[in-house]
Amino acid sequence: MSNLHTHTIYCDGKNTVEENIKSAADKGLISIGFSGHSHFYKDKTSMTEEGTLKYIEDVNKNKYIYKDKIQVYLGIEGDYYSNLNKDTDKEMGLDYRIGSVHYIDDGNNSYFPIDMSRESFNNAVKYFGGIKEVVCRYYDNVIKMIETQKPDIIGHLDLVRKYNLNKEYFTEEEDWYISKIDEVLNIIKKNKCLVELNTKLMNKNNLDAHYPNKYTIKKLLEIDADFIINTDAHWSDNVDHFYIEAVNELKNIGVKYIKILIDNTFKSIEI
Ligand SMILES: [Zn+2]
Ligand SMILES: [Zn+2]
User: Fold this and answer.
1) Residue-wise pLDDT tens digits, 146-161
2) How far is the CA of 160 from the centre of ligand 2 (A)?
3) Could you name the CATH architecture of 2-270?
4) Residues 6 or more apart whose Cβ sits within 8 Å of residue 237
5) What is the pLDDT of residues 41-89, one digit of tens each?
6) Distance from the CA of 101 to the center of ligand 1, in angstroms?
7) 36 CA distance to ligand 2 middle (Å)
8) What is the DSSP string of 96-160?
9) Cα 81 to middle of ligand 2, angstroms
């Protein structure tokens, strides 16, 4: 196991860098990466600018301290509106960057969170005049993020489904949705970024609650996309959250290899 999507007290995580590393080592992970929320002035739970520097220092310090126990990597979860890119990655000395969309905007400096609460999601649906507009704006941001910011990994690709797990807003099988997904897939294919299977919402009663959904995983498989399994842990106990179940899910869908960050390289391993 390996997990590159973890949050700490520097953003909205509940545990320290060190607590996460210890938990990961105890659970037998071969590597752990940190992905604090990049600073975005509209997002109170993202890292402050000053906190980001402390975070980088803390992860790098512990990378060295625990080097004989587990491989530790410095990453960031770059929100689309933080405008990170390969140059800023270098400046920060990052090992990798997860690119994520958490907001959409109206072009007039109003930002709407996609995953904060059902209430705020409903506000966006109301403001933009329907679910379709919100979903399409979300994926347009994903596309722009991939094209302009070139992340190593795409975080929770279809986060916009968060409040649609019981199909409350749309079936996810409608033509407009499928063709929007196709648009995103074309960009992924062209840019060859890794796609994360994010296990954050998975639970015993709903093993299907992963991002992206089964259909999109199948389509990603058809374009030979590379997968990486991440738990998006906000507690140190969640560094392996439903990891094994996620491996089985990918296997059942027909995925044969996943990528793991090991010895500073993304390596393919057979599952
Ligand atoms: Zn995220
Ligand atoms: Zn996250």
Assistant:
1) 999 999 999 999 999 9
2) 14
3) Alpha-Beta Barrel (3.20)
4) 23
5) 999 999 999 999 999 999 999 999 999 999 999 999 999 999 999 999 9
6) 7
7) 7
8) EEEEE--EEE-SSS-EEESSS-HHHHHHHHHHTTSHHHHHHHHHHHHHHHHHHH--SEE-STTGG
9) 15
Distance 78 CA to ligand 1 centre (A): 8
- C-alpha distances in Å from residue 147, one per residue of 143, 151, 154, 193: 6, 9, 12, 10
- Over residues 173-222, the pLDDT tens digits come to 999 999 999 999 999 999 999 999 999 999 999 999 999 999 999 999 99
Q: Degrees (nearest 5) of the Cα angle 208, 210, 216?
A: 90
Distance of CA 107 to the CA centre of its chain: 24
d(CA 98, ligand 1 centre) in Å: 9
> Which pLDDT does position 216 carry in this prediction?
97
pLDDT in tens, 243-268: 999 999 999 999 999 999 999 999 99
Can you give the pLDDT at residue 44?
A: 93
When the pLDDT of each residue in the chain is averaged and rounded to a whole number, the result is 97
Ligand located closest to 231 CA: 2
| Cβ pair 199, 242 in contact under 8 A | yes
Q: How far is the CA of 102 from the centre of ligand 1 (A)?
A: 6
Q: Which tokens sit at 146?
A: 């991939």
Alpha-carbon gap, residue 172 to 163, rounded angstroms? 12
**Residue 45 Cα, ligand 2 centroid: separation in angstroms?**
11
Distance (Å) from CA 173 to ligand 1 centroid: 24
Kindly give the distance from the C-alpha atom of residue 210 to the centroid of ligand 1, in angstroms, as a whole number.
Answer: 13
CA of residue 153 to ligand 2 center, whole Å: 12
Give me the pLDDT at residue 42, please: 95
The predicted pLDDT at position 39 comes to 98
CA of 126 to the centre of ligand 2 (A): 26
